[in-house]
């Protein structure tokens, strides 16, 4: 039984980047189930078409826009294509992203550059590219950026990933301030670990996933909460609540929290 249907999603076109798997896939399915039209963006055309077929089998509608890579040139071309093909786009969910967990001394700078390109610059480019479109209409529009609790509660071995998410959170907060007089809502989604394929790249030895598996969020639950928030005046979504509470205490008492939670912080 579906709970608390968000009727403002009906017939709305909403871009979901990184839609081929994980949280993005569940968000796209939930948008379609709620009567919206997810615009599916990812690098795997085969997985996108498979998802589109699944949505259609459930009597939903979707649009497929594969992208070879989340490069500046490819995104620029894709934005132009979408603007030509779609009369009105109502929302953007910047979900594409990945992480690699390494100590600072072991960082591969090329990995860090790619994390910043996918996790930060791509999302900024999509948001900037569609911003004039969103602002020209009187009806509500929404940009949701999937960030991470790592942006608020950084832990060892996440230097590159946490830095990219801190950058995206800062961008989101500033975009919200700059558009506060408009009908555009800007929301950050700050998540703890979610049970997806994210950890296949991030945590190659499986140690962290094994240590936190019992605390992991289910992607379907995350997607449901995000879609229910679409076109509402939601500033942030923070999951799980206790990790958000920990991040607040960390900002107030960083040294104390690092001492108390050392064993938790070192689970990677």
Search tags:
268 residues; alpha/beta; Rossmann fold; seven-stranded parallel β-sheet; 11 helices; 7 strands; 49% helix; globular
User: Biggest sheet, strands in spatial order?
Assistant: 3-2-1-4-5-6-7
Distance from first to last alpha carbon: 37 Å
Rg from Cα: 18 Å
So what's the CATH class?
Alpha Beta
* Largest sheet geometry: 7 strands, parallel
Describe this structure in words.
This protein is α/β, with parallel strands linked by helices and 268 residues long. It has a single domain, classed as NAD(P)-binding Rossmann-like Domain (Rossmann fold, 3-Layer(aba) Sandwich). 49% of the residues lie in helices and 14% in strands. The protein has eleven helices and seven strands. It has a seven-stranded parallel sheet with strand order 3-2-1-4-5-6-7, with helices on both faces. Helix 3 packs parallel to helix 4. The mean pLDDT is 92.
Briefly summarize what is shown.
With 268 residues, the protein is α/β, with parallel strands linked by helices.
């Amino acid at each position: 039984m579906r709970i608390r249907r968000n009727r403002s999603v009906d017939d709305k076109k909403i871009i979901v980047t990184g839609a081929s798997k994980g949280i993005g896939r569940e968000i796209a399915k939930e948008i379609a189930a709620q009567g919206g039209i997810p615009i599916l963006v990812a690098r795997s055309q085969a997985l996108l078409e498979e998802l589109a077929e699944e949505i259609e089998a459930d009597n939903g509608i979707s649009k497929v826009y594969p992208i070879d890579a989340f490069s500046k040139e490819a995104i620029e071309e894709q934005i132009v294509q979408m603007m030509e093909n779609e009369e009105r786009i109502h929302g953007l969910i910047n979900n594409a992203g990945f992480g690699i967990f390494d100590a600072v001394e072991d960082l591969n700078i090329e990995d860090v550059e790619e994390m910043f390109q996918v996790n930060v610059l791509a999302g900024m480019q999509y948001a900037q590219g569609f911003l004039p479109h969103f602002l020209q209409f009187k009806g509500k529009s929404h940009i949701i950026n999937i960030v991470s609790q790592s942006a608020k509660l950084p832990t060892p071995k996440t230097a590159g990933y946490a830095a990219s998410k801190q950058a995206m959170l800062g961008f989101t907060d500033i975009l919200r301030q700059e558009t506060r007089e408009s009908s555009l809502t800007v929301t950050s989604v700050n998540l703890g670990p979610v049970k997806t394929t994210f950890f296949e790249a991030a945590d190659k030895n499986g140690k962290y996933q094994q240590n936190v598996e019992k605390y992991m969020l289910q992607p379907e639950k995350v997607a449901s909460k995000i879609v229910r928030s679409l076109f509402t005046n939601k500033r942030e979504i923070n999951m799980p609540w206790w990790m958000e509470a920990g991040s607040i205490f960390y900002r107030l008492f960083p040294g104390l929290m690092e001492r108390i939670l050392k064993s938790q912080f070192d689970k990677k």
